């Protein structure tokens, strides 16, 4: 019996086989693991801390497997443009003005938003990684973080410096925040990092056991030049530079052909599907059911708040299930259970991080979802609701690594009002500098 316990009592638990059972969940706060699941485990008085889950569903904390958290500062700054023009005309000029303090403020805003919508774990590709790590540490979340590398348009020296920084921070911060922070080396994409430097970065990272995270096959404009120049598909090129290991994970994978889906399945490389971002930037429809059928690990991501425009992963669940049907021209494609799995277990697997399952021995990363709201009545099938009807604002409590991050919708680890006010002010100043 654990000596330092958190009891999540009175609710129903979503088990890894997608069944929902009446059960308390008992957590050892000392090692952050689930120690027991079952009815009436103990009285509230016997536990060191309790969370009331009555009427609700205890599910794994959601995993946002691809985002740029600090981009919350650019939420709504530029919309309604294709990816290339949006990046070059609006996003990159604004990002050039970002200070370390801005990144800290924007990241904290993103973390508050994620905690409030049941996300416990995320992958972050951005700059000023030490600030991101400090924010994750304070917020109590779990993350795989890295410095995004772009070398095109840079002279050799600054291109190399960018690669070095990505490798250096990945080595320095792996295992930070009591092990809740892991790292990856993050070349921005296959077209924005030159081949010799990409090869070097991948080889060095893998030598040290550090995974690679990159954007891949996001738009046709990104795929076509590679096919023209190299007479091979982008993921064949990625494989050639050594990139497709079973610990690596790719964002988007929208325009992948059959040979590339097979390659991903063979290599064990995961894909992070970002349906809202793909719709908003008109990037295309990822063949999610085909990826799942081939045995590829698929996770879900919001991408940055500037292309979504929020970080509520329940929106992604619904978008993934719906867009997956349009993509497959089949209403039975990407069913509710598959969407829920992608948002939880799929995400944890893609990031090689603990969590994603409510079972004994698993990390106590949990979201307790209230089912009292009118839009969730009646509840014939709770899994259907989690995919199609629940909103992030229905999350009552959020727990990560055995620690309560939000109780009764109050975030305990960050000062929500202060975080929102600071981010607002910094966003106004940032945009003024960029214009
Ligand atoms: Zn992205």
Strands in their spatial order, largest beta sheet: 3-2-7-17-18-19-20
CATH topology of the largest domain: TIM Barrel
Helix content: 25-40%
Provide the number of structural domains. 2
Give the distinct bound molecules.
zinc ion
The CATH class of the largest domain, by name, is Alpha Beta
Determine the CATH superfamily of the largest domain.
Answer: Metal-dependent hydrolases
Oligomer: single chain
Beta-strand residue fraction: 15-25%
Report the radius of gyration as a whole number of Å: 21 Å
Average pLDDT score:
97
Our measurement of the CA-to-CA distance between the termini, rounded to an integer number of angstroms, reads 60 Å
CATH architecture of the largest domain: Alpha-Beta Barrel
Shape: globular
> How many DSSP E strands?
20
Spans of at least 5 consecutive residues whose pLDDT stays below 50 are none
Protein name: 5-methylthioadenosine/S-adenosylhomocysteine deaminase
Keywords: Hydrolase, Metal-binding, Zinc
EC number: 3.5.4.28, 3.5.4.31
Family: Belongs to the metallo-dependent hydrolases superfamily. MTA/SAH deaminase family.
């Amino acid at each position: 019996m654990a000596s330092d316990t958190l009891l999540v009592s009175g609710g129903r638990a979503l088990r890894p086989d997608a069944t929902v059972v009446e059960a308390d969940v008992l957590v050892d706060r000392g090692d952050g693991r689930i120690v027991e699941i079952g009815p009436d485990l103990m009285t509230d008085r016997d536990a060191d801390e309790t969370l009331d889950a009555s009427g609700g569903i205890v599910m794994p904390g959601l995993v946002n497997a691809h985002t740029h958290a600090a981009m919350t500062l650019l939420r709504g700054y530029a919309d309604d443009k294709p990816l290339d023009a949006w990046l070059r005309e609006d996003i990159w000029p604004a990002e050039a003005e970002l200070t370390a303090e801005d990144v800290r403020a924007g990241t904290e805003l993103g973390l508050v938003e994620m905690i409030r919508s049941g996300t416990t774990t995320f992958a972050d590709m951005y700059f000023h990684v030490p600030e991101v790590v400090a924010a994750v540490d304070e917020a109590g979340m779990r993350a795989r973080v890295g410095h995004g590398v772009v070398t095109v348009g840079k002279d050799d020296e600054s291109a190399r410096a960018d690669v070095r920084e990505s490798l250096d921070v990945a080595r320095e911060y792996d295992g930070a925040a009591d092990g809740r922070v892991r790292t990856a080396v993050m070349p921005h994409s296959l077209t924005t990092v030159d081949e010799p430097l990409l090869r070097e970065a991948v080889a060095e990272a893998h030598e040290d056991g550090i995974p690679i995270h990159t954007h891949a096959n996001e738009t046709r404009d990104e795929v076509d030049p590679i096919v023209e120049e190299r007479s091979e598909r982008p993921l064949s090129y990625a494989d050639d530079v050594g990139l497709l290991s079973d610990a690596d994970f790719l964002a988007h994978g929208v325009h992948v052909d059959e040979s590339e889906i097979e390659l991903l399945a063979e290599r064990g490389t995961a894909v992070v599907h970002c349906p809202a971002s793909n719709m908003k930037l008109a990037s295309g429809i990822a063949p999610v059911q085909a990826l799942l059928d081939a045995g590829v690990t698929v996770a879900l991501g919001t991408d940055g708040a500037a292309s979504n425009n929020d970080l509520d992963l329940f929106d992604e669940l619904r978008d993934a299930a719906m867009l997956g049907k349009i993509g497959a021209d089949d209403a039975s494609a990407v069913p509710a259970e598959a969407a829920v799995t992608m948002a939880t277990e799929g995400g944890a697997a893609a990031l090689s991080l603990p969590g994603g399952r409510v079972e004994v021995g698993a990390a106590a990363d949990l979201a307790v979802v209230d089912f009292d709201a009118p839009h969730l009545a009646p509840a014939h099938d709770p899994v259907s609701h989690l995919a199609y009807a629940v909103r992030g604002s229905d999350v009552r409590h959020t727990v990560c690594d055995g620690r309560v991050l939000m109780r009764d919708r109050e975030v305990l680890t960050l000062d929500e009002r202060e975080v929102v006010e600071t981010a607002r002010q910094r966003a106004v100043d940032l945009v003024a500098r960029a214009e």
